[in-house]
Amino acid sequence: MNFKDFTIKEIKKILTNKEINKKIINRLRQDQRKGVKKLARKYSNILQRENEQLQKWKKMNKKVIALSKKGYELIAGIDEAGRGPLAGPVVAAAVILDSRKKIIGLDDSKKLTAKKREKLYNEIRKKSVAVGVGIIDNKEIDKYNIQQATFMAMEKAVKNLDIIPDYLLIDGNKKIPDLNLEQEAVINGDGKINIIAAASIIAKVTRDSIIDRYHKKYPDYGFINNKGYGTKEHIEALKKYGATTLHRLSYKIVNKYANGE
Predict the structure, then answer these.
(1) Cα–Cα distance, 213 to 193 (Å, whole number)
(2) Contact criterion met (CB below 8 Å) for 91 and 210
(3) Parallel, antiparallel, or unpaired for β 183-186 and 130-136?
(4) Where in the chain is the domain with CATH 3.30.420.10?
(5) Is pTM beyond 0.70 here?
């Protein structure tokens, strides 16, 4: 295709419906028009980002490939969201990805925008072999402590998978106790291994949606913005209004204001 035969407006329309590659970009660069050269730079940058994300996927998939070569077929990534907040549940997710279906852009959920998390959440749900979620509410957190509640949420997530995994990769430095499955803890795994990153996104988006619904019931606490974390706005609301049914009373600062101090 000779882009010189088309107007810049026509070229833009053609490119929106065409898979971009280096050959197309080189043809754009041969055109002397400033507008076309600008398009060449734009699509060159896009192609570079896509290649970087593909390389990242391959890097984050190495651990899973290594385990697959050892004979493990159903490897689940596990992560949680909500250990630190003063209110709301802790949510864990377990994800088994389909090795034939790449999900480009996976990363630690905390490094992604809300919009990007939502997009990846839907893609993970669509392309995964199985997704399981475990939710432990604030009352159980108060009863058992946050570490035990996190393990309980993780175990629930694994048991809520439609298929039993034969190996677990867990974000953090601790395995799930009393769970009769082979497992391995990976520090900062949500930024290193694709299936753990996928689990972190499922857990984060699930928990955020729960907290967002509670914002309608308790608008004074700013849950829509702080997701239950101890921001200045949240602490001020605790001082003024006390604790809600969503708050973790076993946390010192919550207990302090729940008792009117």
Answers:
(1) 31
(2) yes
(3) unpaired
(4) 62-203
(5) yes
Give residue-wise pLDDT tens across range 74-117. 999 999 999 999 999 999 999 999 988 999 999 999 999 999 99
Residue 195 is encoded by which pair of tokens? 């299936």
3-state secondary structure of 130: strand
Q: Could you report the per-residue pLDDT of 118-150, keeping only the tens digit for each?
A: 999 999 999 999 999 999 999 999 999 999 999
3-state secondary structure 28-51: HHHCCCHHHHHHHHHHHHHHHHHH
Name all contacts of 219-223 with Cβ < 8 Å and 24+ positions apart: 221/87, 223/87, 223/88
State the pLDDT at residue 16: 84
Q: Domain 62-203 - what CATH class?
A: alpha beta
Contacts of 100 (CB under 8 A, 6+ apart): none
At 17 the pLDDT is 80
> What CA–CA distance (Å, rounded) separates 192 from 195?
9
Phi, psi of 96 (to 5 degrees): -110, 115
pLDDT of residue 254: 95
CA 251, chain centre distance (Å): 26
Cα dist from 218 to 25, 91, 161, whole Å: 53, 20, 32
d(CA 221, CA 219): 6
